[in-house]
Design brief:
Blueprint (H helix, E strand, L loop, with lengths): L1 H22 L1 E10 L2 H18 L2 E13 L4 E11 L5 E3 L3 E3 L2
Antiparallel strand pairs: 1-3, 2-3, 4-5
Amino acid sequence: MRSLKLGLAAAAVMCGLSATAHADCVKVGAVGEAVTHDIAYLFSTHGLANVIYGQGRVGKGPVHTKCDDGAGTSTCHSSQLACKVTTPKTCLGAWLCFPA
């Protein structure tokens, strides 16, 4: 009976620690709009990487990108789960971040 209680206590602690580890993860998104589909895709994916870096996070898992081609422009939305690893960087927008 005692080992069952210890096992349940250990499982509760592990669940608590794993929930804490995931608490610093958020879904981050970026939008790219340009005249061509390829440039909009480039803007959205590279902008996403810079935003994640600027927040002091690292991307986890795949990048999800959805593009809509309009009459004159294409718009792409990219998103990815990102977890905190360092302090935020100094950035000017999504394209210019300074090293720490």
